[in-house]
Amino acid sequence: MKTGLVLEGGALRGLFTAGVLDVMMEQNLTVDAIVGVSAGAVFGCNFKSRQIGRTIRYNKKYCRDWRYGSFRSLLLTGDYYGADFCYRRIPEELDPFDVQTYQQNGMTFDVVCTDVETGEAVYHRCETSMDEDLKWMRASASMPLVSRPVQIDGKKYLDGGIADSIPLHYMEKLGCPHSIVILTQPQGFVKEPNRLLPVMRLLLKKYPALLRALEHRHEGYNAITKEIAEKEARGEILVIRPESALNIGAASHDPREMERVYQLGRRMGEKKLSEIQRFIANT
């Protein structure tokens, strides 16, 4: 039976996930399939390339560079997180992504995006981590209002978390009924309607299906987290989550805060290590 790894997004809350994944890599733990959403996609790809510490390293190093993420970047490029800097210069030049190891690694890596015309989730398998795959990863992490829709093959995509925040059902369809699920919100968290919906209704009115998905996003999120808790109680999946709210903004530029959240993930990974090892061995 295959072992799956499901990675929730959450912008810089994803550094918690990065901490857990680094602990797993240090212990040479692996899985058969990964599906990541938003930050779970752009940070989780380093698990397939087996690059311990890369996620926290480049985030801390470049978080105060306006090209990495800033309102200046938003005004000049249309994206708060600069597409060229984050998805070309960093992985190709400044902190190279190990494309060869990624491609030679047998685990599959899928990302989730939201089609802005239909409001539905679209899943893409990133086989090379280059060119078009990078567009899919960027689309998965492109938050509405602060990102341009990413155009791929004539269609437009945004943040996968809009349509499928925690793609456990997708992983089950891949043949992994017993997965490790890494969440970035604590147990009992209930998502509320987005307080920016009035602004979204104004600025995204040409995408009515996307707006409907945004309006109902909290309902889908709360339904899947309830199901996850039930499956966890039955021992069907292993859930790793922070013990309390991570309290880091989506656009923090403080490397100390990034390190704090990353270390919380590491400590939880170490705390859950024996459970992770048993779970992988049993599945």
Key phrases:
283 residues, 13 helices, alpha/beta
Characterize this entry briefly:
By secondary structure, the chain is an alpha/beta fold.
Write up this protein.
The chain has helices at residues 14-26, 39-48, 54-62, 71-77, 83-94, 99-104, 132-140, 168-173, 197-203, 208-215, 217-233, 255-271, 273-282; strands at residues 4-7, 33-37, 108-115, 121-125, 150-152, 155-159, 179-182, 238-240. It has 283 residues and is an alpha/beta fold. Strands 1, 2, 3, 4, 5, 6, 7 and 8 form an eight-stranded mixed beta sheet that branches. The chain is globular. It starts with a strand and ends with a helix. The mean pLDDT is 96.
Structural class: alpha/beta
> How much of the residues is beta strand, in percent?
5-15%
Describe the global form: globular
Number of helices: 13
Mean pLDDT equals: 96
Helix content: 40-55%
Rg from C-alpha positions?
Answer: 18 Å
Distance between the termini: 6 Å
Helix/strand order? EHEHHHHHEEHEEHEHHHEHH
Write the layout of secondary structure elements.
Elements: E1 4-7, H1 14-26, E2 33-37, H2 39-48, H3 54-62, H4 71-77, H5 83-94, H6 99-104, E3 108-115, E4 121-125, H7 132-140, E5 150-152, E6 155-159, H8 168-173, E7 179-182, H9 197-203, H10 208-215, H11 217-233, E8 238-240, H12 255-271, H13 273-282
Parallel strand pairs: 1-2, 1-7, 2-3, 7-8
Antiparallel strand pairs: 3-4, 3-6, 5-6
